[in-house]
Amino acid sequence: MMQTLDAPGATLAYGVLGSGPVLVLIGHPMPADGFRALAAELATDRTVVLHDPRGTGASTMADPTELPDPEVLADDLSRVIAAVTDQPVDVFGSSGGGIAALVLASRHPEQVATVVAHEPPLTEYLPDAAELRERLAGVSATHREQGLFPAMGAFMAIAGFAPPAPAADAPPPPPPSEADLRSMTRMVLGIETVPTHRLDAAALPTDRVRIGVGAWSGDAALTGRTSRAVAAELGVPLDVFPGGHGGFHPGQGGDPAAFAAVLRTALG
């Protein structure tokens, strides 16, 4: 059961399950549903908080065309945490949610105990950041000129995410749901604002931060590169998680039980 709270320009949806120390799971643009399997593994001894970032899932926006901003996403996350507890919490963020979790730690350090940012796509920490900025701008241009699906194709080429080849006799995949389309739109709208964010390293409590990288995410995957670069830049531990970018998601070839075991170790 999802609950809601008001935020400037948005209504935020979140859910709580399990009992024990609080652990928040956050993605972007993936909403809470993508974490359901992982949450089930963790809720046996933790209070797990799930959250749909503004503009995804059940979280609405006054202006859906507003560009995603990591600082706004982090402040939204802060509001959700405050609605659940007044104590510091553990936070696990994946992809753009990993960026939001890191920004949360710098803007609201009193709310976090340990933060694990799994494959945050922070391209500004790479040696080819300038080239990537141009390519990401090209995704935005493709979106404006050709639409969502060509833009998604352009992004996938940059990200190095190779979808598995379907079996010869496999039926065609179902069309994206309305929720999927909203999430893809939020990702493309934020393609020049989210990956290019630079962290306020001076405000970041690095003693409470860890970076995660997927075991399958080598140098061909953009998020494999960014994860290693951010961990090195911040001087924080790099934890290797099972699978790739979606290593916790059964629909992306992930193993939630194995992923949860590594996450428990990283959180201590």
TrEMBL record:
Pfam family of the protein (one): Abhydrolase_1
Domain of life, per lineage: Bacteria
PANTHER family reported for this sequence: HYDROLASE, PUTATIVE (AFU_ORTHOLOGUE AFUA_2G14860)-RELATED, MONOACYLGLYCEROL LIPASE
Domain AB hydrolase-1: 21-127
InterPro entries to which the protein is assigned, alphabetical: AB_hydrolase_1 (IPR000073), AB_hydrolase_fold (IPR029058), AB_hydrolase_sf (IPR050266)
Signal peptide: none
Name of the molecule in the record: Alpha/beta hydrolase
Gene Ontology molecular-function annotations: hydrolase activity
Keywords, in A-Z order: Hydrolase
